[in-house]
Amino acid sequence: MRDLKRAEGLPARVFVVDDEDFIRDLYKDMFESRGHTVFSARSGDEAVRLIRSMPSKPDAIIMDHRMPGKDGIETTKEIKTIDPSIPIIFSSADETVREQAIRAGAVSFWTKPFPIAMLIDATMDIVNARKRLN
Question: pTM score, two decimals?
């Protein structure tokens, strides 16, 4: 089992974009229980609006694919034009969009369902590696 302190690193700002209330709430509870701050949006359009208005951008974004209005691929592309440095972790039950998500700018693709603790650890590894480089 991984060392919890190493997996968590410094507190992070995580932005969850998913149209499912249950998923947003689950990610929020899990990340916050480890000391991280969570923002969320239920659609791509809402996510883009929030990103544009944030004075401090998130350390990572977890992006769903199928959402009302703008899907995760289009949302990823638009967010990358706003701030290309934000790592986006794509999360979808639709494995067929993996290549599109990576081409759009996602650093990682997770096929639902998966153990939430593994996603949190992977997200924090990405965030901590990015913070070490800056």
Answer: 0.90
